[in-house]
Design a protein that fits this description.
The complex is a heterodimer of chains A (268) and B (255).
Chain A: H1 10-38, H2 48-60, H3 70-102, H4 104-119, H5 126-133, H6 137-162, H7 165-173, H8 178-215, H9 221-228, H10 234-262
Helix pairs in contact in A: 2-10, 3-4, 3-6, 3-8, 3-9, 4-6, 5-6, 6-8, 8-9, 8-10, 9-10
Chain B: E1 2-11, E2 14-24, E3 29-34, H1 40-48, E4 55-60, E5 63-64, E6 73-76, H2 88-100, H3 109-125, H4 141-153, E7 159-163, H5 171-187, E8 191-195, H6 199-205, E9 208-213, E10 228-234, H7 241-249
Helix pairs in contact in B: 2-3, 2-4, 3-4, 6-7
The structure holds adenosine-5'-diphosphate and magnesium ion.
Chain lengths: 268, 255
C-alpha cells in the first residue's frame, strides 16, 4: 500500500501524538542530568524532583507571607482577566462586526476607522492604558480588549459579508425587517464563526495578558514568571509555562467542543 | 398584472438588457430561456426589486414596483435558498414567525403552536414532513429545493420567481419536481416566472415561453448591445414528458 494511503488507527493516533512529548521529556531529563553532573548548583535545567518540589511549594502549601496558595491565586487572577477581556472583545466584535457587514451606511462609517484602529500595536499604547485606567485590573482587561477586539470586529464583518446574498434576499421576501435579518439570519450563523475567531485570538490574548502582568501587577501567572526570573527559578517558571500552555489548549479544545455541540449544522 | 416598460440595464460599458417590454396577466406561468450570461437572472432580480433598471420601469397591478425584495414576490434560487442553521421545520416556520413577532423574530405559546401547525401542513404538501427535524445539509439537493418552495409558498406570495430551481437536480427527480410545482400552481393563486436552461422544461412547464437573446451583435464589441425578449410564445400545459418531444419539434414562432 502506498504511504499516502496508510492511516494510523485509534492507538496509533494516540501513540504518535504522545511520542514527541515523551521525546522532549527524555531529552530534557538527559540534558538536565548532564548539566547537574557538571555543577550540582546549576539552576537552568533543574531535575524533575526539584520541579516537583517547587510545584508542591507553590500549589499545595500556603505562602508563608500571605497564606495564599499562590499557584491557584495566580491562575484565578489571570483567568479572570483573560476571560473578561476576551468575552468583552467577543461582544464588541459582534456588536460592531454584524452591523458593519450588514448595513452599508454603518460599514461606510466605521470600517475605515476600525481598520486604522487595528493597525495600532496594542503594546505601544499600554503605557497610555496604565496612565488612563491606572495600574489595576481595568488596564489589563483593556489591553486584552484592545488587542483582540479589532481582529474580531473585522473577522465578523468579513463573515457577514461572506453570507450568500441569496439568503439575505430570501429573508426579505419572507418580509424580514433589517433587524429580523440580523437577529434570525445573520447572528446565529455568525456565532460559531465568532467562536472560531475567539479561538484564533486567544494566542494574542495570552500574550497581552502576560505582558500586562509582567509590567504592572501583584499577582497572575505572567507576574509570577517575571518575578521569579530574578532568582533564576526555572523550577517555578517551567511548570508555569507548561500550565499556561495546558490552559490555552483547554480553552481551544473547549471552544471547539462548544461549537460542535451548540451548532451541529456548522461546517456540515 | 405585471407590466415591464422599455427596461434597460447597463453595467459600466456593458449593456446587459435593452428595450425589454412585457405584459403579464395574473396566473400566467412564464418560463424564460436564453444563452448563459444573457441577462435572465438580471431580469429576475429586477422583478425581485434587488436590481434597479437604468431606464424604464416595472409596474405591479398599476403601482410602480417596490424597489426592494418584498413578501408579495417569493423566490427560489438554484442554491442557497434555505437557511443552513435552521431545521427543515424552522425554515418554513421562519416566515410565519417573522410576521407575528416583530422584535423577537420568533413566537411562543399558542401562536407558535398555530404556526408550527401551518408549517407542518406546508411540509406535508411537499412531502418533507418526515425530515422536519433535520438540517438542510442532511437533505438531498431536490429535497432542499422542495423546502425552499415550501418556505416561500407558506407566505402566499402572488408572484413566484424561480431561477433555475431544478438546474442542479438529476433528470428523473426533476420530473417529480415539475409535477409538484404544477400542482402547487394549480392550487394557489400564483403568477410564476421561471428561468431554466432546459428547453424541454421551458416548453412543458409553462403557459408562456420567453426567449432572451441579443437581436444585434457588434463583432468588435460584444458588450455594446444587450439582450431582449426575442420570442414570446404561448405554450400548453404538458404534464407528461413524452409530449415535450413533440413540442420540441415545433419551430419557434410557428407555435
Ligand atoms: N453586478 C454586476 N456587475 C457587472 N456585471 C454584471 C453584474 N451582474 C450581472 N452582470 C453581467 O450581466 C450579464 C448577465 O448576467 P446574468 O443575468 O446572471 O445572466 P444569466 O442569468 O442569463 O446567465 C453577465 O455577463 C454578467 O457578467
Ligand atoms: Mg442566471
Amino acid at each position: 500500500m502506498r504511504l499516502i494511503n496508510r492511516r494510523p488507527g485509534g492507538l496509533g493516533i494516540l501513540a504518535s501524538a504522545a511520542i514527541p512529548f515523551a521525546l522532549a521529556l527524555i531529552l530534557y531529563v538527559i540534558a538536565s542530568s548532564i548539566r547537574l553532573a557538571e555543577n550540582p548548583d546549576d539552576k537552568l535545567l533543574p531535575d524533575l524532583s526539584t520541579i516537583g518540589a517547587a510545584i508542591e511549594r507553590v500549589a499545595f502549601e500556603p505562602d508563608r507571607r500571605t497564606g495564599d496558595y499562590i499557584f491557584w491565586t495566580d491562575t484565578g487572577a489571570s483567568l479572570q482577566r483573560l476571560v473578561t477581556g476576551v468575552f468583552l472583545a467577543a461582544l464588541v466584535g459582534l456588536a460592531v462586526g454584524v452591523p458593519n457587514g450588514l448595513v452599508p451606511w454603518f460599514g461606510a462609517f466605521w470600517s475605515p476607522a476600525i481598520r486604522a484602529l487595528s493597525m495600532i500595536p496594542p503594546l505601544a499604547v499600554l503605557p497610555i492604558l496604565f496612565i488612563v485606567f491606572g495600574v489595576g485590573e481595568l488596564a489589563k482587561v483593556m489591553l486584552i480588549l484592545l488587542g483582540t477586539a479589532p481582529f474580531l470586529m473585522r473577522d465578523i464583518e468579513q463573515r457577514v459579508r461572506e453570507l450568500p446574498r441569496e439568503q439575505l434576499i430570501k429573508a426579505q421576501t419572507l418580509d424580514a425587517t433589517s433587524w429580523q435579518v440580523a437577529l434570525r439570519v445573520v447572528l446565529p450563523q455568525v456565532l460559531p464563526r465568532l467562536i472560531d475567531g475567539v479561538r484564533l485570538s486567544l494566542g494574542s490574548a495570552w500574550l497581552f495578558l502576560i505582558a500586562a502582568e509582567a509590567i504592572a501587577s501583584t499577582d497572575g501567572l505572567g507576574y509570577r514568571i517575571f518575578l521569579v526570573r530574578r532568582y533564576l527559578a526555572m523550577d517555578v517558571i517551567l511548570p508555569y509555562v507548561a500550565w499556561i500552555t495546558f490552559l490555552a489548549f483547554l480553552f481551544d479544545f473547549g471552544l471547539r467542543r462548544l461549537n460542535r455541540r451548540c451548532f451541529p449544522w456548522y461546517g456540515a | 398584472m405585471i407590466e415591464v416598460r422599455n427596461v434597460w440595464k447597463r453595467y459600466d460599458d456593458k449593456t446587459v438588457l435593452e428595450k425589454v417590454s412585457l405584459n403579464v396577466e395574473r396566473n400566467e406561468f412564464i418560463t424564460i430561456v436564453g444563452a448563459s450570461g444573457c441577462g435572465k437572472t438580471t431580469f429576475l432580480r429586477m422583478l425581485l426589486g434587488e436590481v434597479e433598471p437604468c431606464e424604464g420601469s416595472i409596474f405591479v397591478e398599476g403601482e410602480p414596483l417596490i424597489p426592494e425584495p418584498h413578501a408579495d414576490r417569493g423566490v427560489v434560487f438554484q442554491r442557497y435558498s434555505v437557511f443552513p442553521h435552521l431545521t427543515v421545520l424552522e425554515n418554513v416556520l421562519l416566515g410565519l414567525d417573522l410576521a407575528n413577532a416583530r422584535w423577537l423574530g420568533r413566537t411562543f405559546g399558542r401562536r407558535r403552536t398555530q404556526n408550527v401547525e401551518r408549517a407542518r401542513e406546508m411540509l406535508k404538501r411537499v412531502s418533507l414532513e418526515r425530515t422536519a427535524g433535520n438540517y438542510p445539509s442532511e437533505l438531498s439537493g431536490g429535497m432542499q429545493q422542495r423546502l425552499a418552495l415550501a418556505q416561500t409558498l407558506v407566505k402566499a406570495p402572488r408572484i413566484l420567481l424561480l431561477d433555475e430551481p431544478f438546474g442542479a437536480l438529476d433528470p428523473g427527480y426533476r420530473t417529480d419536481m415539475h409535477e409538484l410545482l404544477l400542482d402547487l400552481f394549480g392550487e394557489l393563486d400564483l403568477t410564476v416566472f421561471m428561468i431554466t436552461h432546459d428547453i424541454a422544461e421551458g416548453f412543458s412547464l409553462g403557459s408562456r415561453l420567453l426567449v432572451f437573446d441579443k437581436p444585434r451583435v457588434d463583432p468588435h464589441n460584444p458588450d455594446l448591445y444587450g439582450a431582449t425578449i426575442t420570442f414570446d410564445l404561448p405554450v400548453g400545459h404538458h404534464r407528461r414528458l413524452d409530449s415535450i418531444v413533440d413540442t420540441m419539434n415545433v419551430k419557434p414562432g410557428q407555435e
